[in-house]
């Protein structure tokens, strides 16, 4: 084996041991005392990011069980991004595709994790363009969904879950939320009804006027008078503009 190949193999052995020291032996010639520094440093960094990104999910576990979950992610998942800021997204990918739930995991595990990741994602998201937010003195020509807002639907009421509320079964209906960030850099959520979800779904695709929104929604609800839909849409749009879920079309 060439010197270059030996160096590469040493690096790979180092990585394998760092990720899963119980399965992979120490690299040849490396002192365990020194290697322990790296083992703790790498794992504790990743575990710290998970704890910061998923504080409510962590509350659902004992300290030992959370440690085991973090260790399983650290040792088994092959991350596609080298950036620490993407660890939370990689954790969602791991839970969705590679992790097999056990009795210690709450039934809402994946949905709660996704909701907490979404809050973090919205918090660090960058706008691709300058958005124009509504003031009461402004007219309303066309509106669009803010780039800093995302719709999500869950079977469990993830926005209510905490130490004192741990549902065992999903509700009868889906919980619809929009998670958004305002100009004060505050991340908030709003609970939505089905009609508002339909409206925001339309506005996520293109900007529309109130009349255009009413026309599209009337197609989905032909039994409701169009003027009633338009009045309801206008009231809802003004509320969402105030929250900065929506912004004016430039």
Morphology: elongated
Beta strand %: 5-15%
Low-confidence stretches: none
Radius of gyration: 24 Å
Q: What level of helicity do the residues show?
A: 40-55%
Look at the structure and give the mean pLDDT. Answer: 90
| Strand element count | 5
Spatially, the strands of the biggest sheet line up as 2-3-4
The CATH topology name of the largest domain reads Outer Surface Protein A, domain 3
| CATH class type of the largest domain | Alpha Beta
**Distance separating the two termini:** 63 Å
- Number of discrete helical segments: 9
What is the number of independent domains?
A: 2
Largest sheet: 3 strands, antiparallel
Structural class: mainly alpha
Topology pattern, helix = H, strand = E: HHHHHHEEEEHHHE
So, CATH architecture of the largest domain? Answer: Alpha-Beta Complex
Brief digest:
The chain has helices spanning about 5-20, 30-55, 55-60, 65-75, 85-95, 110-125, 195-205, 210-220, 225-245, and strands spanning about 145, 150-155, 175-180, 185-190, 245-250. By secondary structure, the chain is mainly α.
Give the SSE map:
Layout: H1 3-19, H2 32-53, H3 55-59, H4 63-76, H5 87-97, H6 109-124, E1 143-145, E2 149-154, E3 175-181, E4 187-192, H7 194-205, H8 210-220, H9 226-243, E5 246-248
Antiparallel strand pairs: 1-5, 2-3, 3-4
């Amino acid at each position: 084996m060439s010197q270059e190949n030996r160096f590469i193999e040493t690096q790979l052995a180092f990585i394998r041991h760092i990720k899963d020291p119980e399965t992979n032996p120490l690299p040849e010639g490396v002192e365990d005392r020194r290697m322990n520094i790296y083992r703790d440093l790498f794992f504790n960094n990743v575990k710290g990011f998970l704890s910061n990104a998923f504080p409510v999910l962590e509350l659902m576990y004992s300290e030992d069980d959370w440690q085991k979950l973090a260790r399983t992610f650290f040792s088994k998942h092959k991350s596609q991004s080298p950036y620490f800021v993407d660890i939370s997204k990689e954790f969602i990918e791991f839970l969705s595709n590679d992790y097999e739930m056990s009795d210690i995991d709450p039934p809402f595990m994946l949905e709660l994790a996704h909701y907490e990741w979404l809050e973090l994602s919205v918090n660090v998201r960058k706008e691709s363009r300058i958005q124009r937010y509504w003031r009461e003195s402004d007219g309303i020509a066309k509106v669009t969904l803010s780039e800093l807002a995302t719709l999500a639907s869950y079977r469990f009421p993830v926005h209510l879950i905490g130490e004192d509320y741990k549902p065992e079964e999903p509700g009868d209906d889906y919980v619809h939320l929009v998670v958004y960030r305002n100009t004060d850099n505050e991340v908030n959520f709003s609970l939505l009804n089905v009609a508002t979800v339909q409206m925001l779904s339309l506005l996520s695709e293109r900007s529309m006027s109130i009349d255009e929104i009413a026309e599209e929604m009337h197609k989905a609800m032909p039994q409701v008078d169009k003027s009633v839909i338009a009045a309801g849409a206008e009231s809802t749009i003004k509320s969402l503009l105030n929250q900065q879920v929506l912004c004016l079309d430039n």
